[in-house]
Amino acid sequence: MKPYEHGGNVYDYEGEIIDFSSNINPLGVPEWVFDIIKKVDLTKYPDIKYRKLKKAISQYVGYSQENIIVGNGAAELIHLFVRAFKVKRPLIPSPAFLEYERAVNINGGEPIYFRLEEDYGFKVNLAKLLSQMEEADALIIGNPNNPTGQAIIREEIGILLKKAEILNIPVMIDEAFIEFMKDYKNYEALPLIKRHNKLFVVRAVTKFFGMPGVRLGYGIGSPSLIQKLEEHKEPWTVNTFAEAIGRELFKDKTYIEKTREYIHREIDYMLYALRKIDYLVAFDTKVNFLLLKLKTGSVDDLKQMLLKRGILIRDASNFRYLDKSFFRVAIKKRQENEKLLQSLEEINMKNLMENKERVVI
């Protein structure tokens, strides 16, 4: 089994690094967050029921507090879902976020994988996915999916949920990146929770708001599902800093809309520029990262050449069904994006010069 590595591991490298391996909001942390941190009282435990935090999330998502659970990032809630429902053979459209697989393996299970085909743009073939659900005891979907950047519309999710009800299996939908989408309302599964008792929707607050170090995630489901998860959950997994910040995050509508506008605009800019680089294939995306493929060569060589220029990319070869020709980059600030594009173009020119020199010799 390939190692469970993730993006954002800048600690293995020295010097100034622009981290394109981590899919974090390029606009950075809202300024008001630092004022909140200064006021945090560290002499008290967080409220073990997180009532104020859940109230803030409740107002944001339109569900009551009994429909909400909070966690130490989305990762805790993914593992909690697998543990609470004793999931052993979930169906996972892949390539996908590695923690789905890891959570199942840790709990003694072995996932079933639905292969997302490159020739199909890594999109879900609904008919094929429905037919494969017969073998599974759960369904786990990233929507939008990491690392492909593709998403399933809500109508198709509804069809999958009806099949899951027939099979009596739980469904977890990871929406950690959905808020980056300009047309997210066409894709989010939240409205379906009212009709499906075994649907669990997971979100990661800290990705969209640019502060992964805070570690805050939340999940929404039916009251019975949330109660089941709470029974298997450790206490106080959300610290006082995360709780205090989380109570205010969702009020910042200006930041939220500004982020969506920027990402939507920058996706078009990046895809247009990357598709002009002749040794790359750039796949469509709906969120703040792009999956890329080398037409020739290995990502190991490309990664080293970019590191010399102070740029870190995400080697995507440890995602299931991807090999050493694939890598992923985040969408950053325009100046940083331009540096990446320029570096990729220079590397291409360098390779051409090397080939020319070999011919002369």
UniProtKB/TrEMBL annotation:
What EC designation does it have?
Answer: 4.1.1.81
A biological process (GO) of this protein is: cobalamin biosynthetic process
Matching entries from InterPro entries are given as: Aminotransferase_I/II_large, CobD, PyrdxlP-dep_Trfase, PyrdxlP-dep_Trfase_major, PyrdxlP-dep_Trfase_small
Quote the SUPFAM superfamilies the UniProt record gives. Answer: PLP-dependent transferases
Q: Which reaction does it catalyse?
A: O-phospho-L-threonine + H(+) = (R)-1-aminopropan-2-yl phosphate + CO2
Cofactor(s) the record lists: pyridoxal 5'-phosphate
* Keyword list, A-Z: Cobalamin biosynthesis, Lyase, Pyridoxal phosphate
Indicate the segments forming the Aminotransferase class I/classII large domain, all copies: 16-344
Instruction: Specify the pathway.
Output: Cofactor biosynthesis; adenosylcobalamin biosynthesis
Enzyme class name: lyase
What is an example of a GO molecular function annotated in this UniProt entry?
A: threonine-phosphate decarboxylase activity
- Keyword Phosphoprotein assigned to the entry: answer is no
What does this protein's UniProt record list under function?
Decarboxylates L-threonine-O-3-phosphate to yield (R)-1-amino-2-propanol O-2-phosphate, the precursor for the linkage between the nucleotide loop and the corrin ring in cobalamin.
This one is known as: threonine-phosphate decarboxylase
Q: What organism is this sequence from? A: Thermoanaerobacter kivui
